[in-house]
Design goal:
This protein is mainly alpha-helical. The chain is built from four helices and two strands. A two-stranded antiparallel ribbon has the order 1-2. A hairpin with a 7-residue loop joins strand 1 and strand 2. Helix 1 runs antiparallel to helix 4 and helix 2 crosses helix 3. The radius of gyration is 22 Å and the shape is elongated.
Length: 115
């Protein structure tokens, strides 16, 4: 039984190390308890933030227009679509996915060793 506890302790330490190094997309909010904010979304200033928000809104407006020949709400529709896709792409937590794959493999290996 002591050997099993040592293996579990070792597994937990390994998972904690992996979590510390790879779970870095979200950080606790300083101003809102129980909420998190992304650590990797960067803007060149308020103007860039506002144009990105405007692009998200414009793309949503375009998608919801049911008219066959809609008048675009935005004069720079291609730019809005690009900014929207860039933001969506930046939200992909690839490092977290790697950690989850690693953790899953460790847990599967641990379960098969116990059998």
């Amino acid at each position: 039984m002591d050997c099993l506890m040592k293996k579990k302790h070792k597994l937990v330490k390994k998972l904690k190390r992996g979590a510390h190094s790879k779970l870095n997309v979200l950080h606790p909010s300083q101003s809102r308890k129980g909420k998190f904010k992304p650590s990797f979304v960067y803007f060149n200033g308020y103007s860039d933030l506002f144009t990105t928000i405007d692009a998200l809104i414009n793309v949503c407006i375009l998608v919801t227009q049911k008219d066959n020949n809609p008048q675009p709400h935005s004069k720079e529709l291609e730019l809005d679509i690009r900014k929207t896709l860039e933001l969506a792409s930046s939200l992909m937590p690839f490092e977290e996915g790697e950690f989850l794959d690693d953790a899953y493999q460790m847990l599967v290996k641990n379960n098969t060793e116990q059998l």
